[in-house]
Amino acid sequence: MLDERGLSKLKWRCRRGLLENDLFIARFFARFESSLSVKQSQALSALMDLSDNDLLDLHLSRKTLIQVDPQLDSPDVREVLKMLKLKETP
Q1: If DSSP states are collapsed to H, E and C, what string results for 24-43?
Q2: Residue 3, SS3?
Q3: Where would a tag sit more exposed on the chain, N or C end, judged by fewer CB atoms within 10 A?
């Protein structure tokens, strides 16, 4: 599990320039912050290296990870991307 300090740093790292991305990310944290693993946080951090437009294209399934950055196409990143796309809260 990710500790409180790591979670705080990750939340700061996830601040984006596009409101749409911020909304997806806020929903992600509302749903998963209490159960986020270190691997998941690393995968989310890797996604944050993308441009806002590429990140939004992934959220909206307009592009795939391979199209955006083939190096990101890993099971952990795919898992976090799937978590980001979940629409309903538990």
Answers
A1: HHHHHHHHHHHHCCHHHHHH
A2: coil
A3: C
